[in-house]
Amino acid sequence: MQFTKMNGLGNDFIVVNGEKELPANASELAVKLCNRFFGIGADGLVYILPSEKADFKMRIINSDGSEAEQCGNAIRCVAKYVYDNGLIDRTDITIETIGAGVQPLQLTTENGKAALVRVDMGAPILKGLDVPTTVDANPVIGHKVEIDGREFAFTAVSMGNPHAVIYVDDAVNFDLAKWGPKLETHPLFPRKINVEFARVNSREQVDMRVWERGAGPTLACGTGACATLVSSVLNGLTDRKATISLAGGDLFIEWSEEDNHVYMTGPAEIVFQGLL
Ligand SMILES: N[C@H](CCC[C@H](N)C(=O)O)C(=O)O
Q: Is the peptide bond before 217 cis (omega within 30 degrees of 0)?
């Protein structure tokens, strides 16, 4: 099996093209191949598949074997993969995901290779029960939850996959390992949840660190950056366009007033190709 190792701001993936549909053993394969000591090492395993509605379809399996509905950094990697490998000769393409349907993307190129990718991530889902959470509110803003004596207030946003955004004084040094897993698996979240810890520095810039559902601490999370921007607008903390600064680098996120869609712009990188 040929694979390509890629990343979006250090959120890294094993990308596989050529299957007609998701292999039955995709979950076990993801656990094995994503292992950073006994496998290739990655946050997820990504399949590029045929689509009847878009140019391509993407399915993403987290390193714990769970399938996610959507993945912002991975969809930029898929767009770069198909362009750089000549599977498409346009810079305007569409990729279908389970969580957000057909997503238009625009590539900018450097020396004939895709450099930046701007993705229409669709409209955020804000109804608490649809994120899903067990909180029957629309939207869920600043909902309190106590864990081991510490109180957190989260805002819930789905980009096709679920997110809880929590504002803290120091996001950069936040103890993800201590609090991430307990929030990820809290009973408030029926399908578990990605947790973003954010510090708003201005109306145009937010520091964010993420504990991802099914993958743990990653260097970046595209859908998490989108959820953080949406949450920050809902909480009156930022404008509708802002830079979300993650451990692996910056993503530029816009929440359009015209179409209510969230647009994410960021890089994607091919590191190496391999054979299994
Ligand atoms: N762990 C996430 C999927 C990957 C999302 C993230 N890597 C991104 O870039 O959006 C989930 O289970 O919802």
A: no
SS3 label, residue 259: coil
Using the mean position of ligand 1's atoms as its centre, give its distance from the Cα of residue 137 in Å.
Answer: 24
b/e burial code for range 109-146 (CB count within 10 A of at least 16 → b): eeeeebebbbbbbbbbbbbbeebbbebeeebbbebebe
Assembly ipTM: 0.97
What residues are in contact with ligand 1 under a 6 Å CB criterion?
11, 62, 68, 71-73, 161, 194, 212-215, 218, 221-224
Question: If we measure between CA atoms, which residue out of 14, 61, 67, 7 comes closest to residue 40?
Answer: 14
Please list the ranges in the chain whose pLDDT falls under 70.
none
Instruction: Let me know how long the chain is.
Output: 276
**Contact criterion met (CB below 8 Å) for 167 and 235:** yes
Amino acid at 14: I
Q: DSSP alpha helices (H): ranges in 91-249?
A: 176-184, 222-234
Q: What is this structure's pTM?
A: 0.98
What pLDDT score was predicted for residue 149? 97
Domains and CATH numbers, the chain: 2-121+266-275 (3.10.310.10), 128-260 (3.10.310.10)
